[in-house]
Amino acid sequence: MPAPHRSNDADQNGLVLDDLDRGLIHALHLDGRAPFNRIGAVLGVSTQTVARRYRRLRADAALRVVGLADPHRAGQARWLARLTASPHTAQELANALARRPDTAWVKLASGGTEIVAVVDTPTGAAAGHSLLLHDIPRTTSITSVSAHYLLHTYLGGPTAWRGHTNALDEQQQRQLRPPARVGEPTARQAVTDADEDLLAVLGRDGRASQADLAEATGWSPATVARRLTDLHTGGALFYDVEISSTLFGATTEALLWMAVTPAHLDAVATALAAHEELAFVAATTGPTNLVAHALCADPAALHRYLTHRLGALDAIRTLETAPVLRTLKSAGPLLRA
Fold this sequence. Notes:
This protein is of the alpha+beta class and 337 residues long. The protein is 33% helix and 26% strand.
């Protein structure tokens, strides 16, 4: 059963999303820098209304648009680290990991004693693996560590969870997708060292103004605009929207660690990537070669998903479910208070 999509979904603070809120969030997934007047024209409301809703969601729902480089285009390898620690130190360790610039997606799971984090390291550079090779093993109170290389992502990154992106019809989506540069074919782009300052600002605020980006990079606004278009249309830059999934009715989330028969791994992962309950699916190294992130309405919905949908796939030999208690870091870096 898919995670619900209701007009009266609310988080624990009582904030309720309506159709306009969800349309705006969907629009920002399609183009995180889309002007409010273009979003308003597609949604049938004024520019001022879109701007007010955006400010409300930022203030009351901690919504944030972040611009992120595709790891492969930026010469980065991604690892999924699993750590277990004593209950009285796990929270402190998770906070320390969340503050690091080389981590993303830091979560507390399995009763608060397990930490799961995505770690970015330079491809092929052992010196860049300091977190995995040196820093974590030296930390006290850790009882176990495992690192899983992300070999292929089937769902996640530029492909958002469908719970966030089912508000707009196909015509509206076409109107909001950013066009390529006129008269020039879209070419695959690679992130270079020259893009570092640009990406640093976008990682904090994907809707930072052209003036702010020009000041950070030392480029002209026109150069900034061209580079943003090239990176985005060339697949090297994508925009993510950080907002609590509870606002979309998903109150129960879990990480699923699966061992799949190698001959069927691609077929199973491709099938899972189409499941509306999942926000992330990736093939990894290790004894469990497939990991997924499930978002469900409640524990009963998660149980139905595990037993009816995953249970029907014979190629899944083992399945470990780790409930997520708290997300300390999402896609973008932590912002200083």
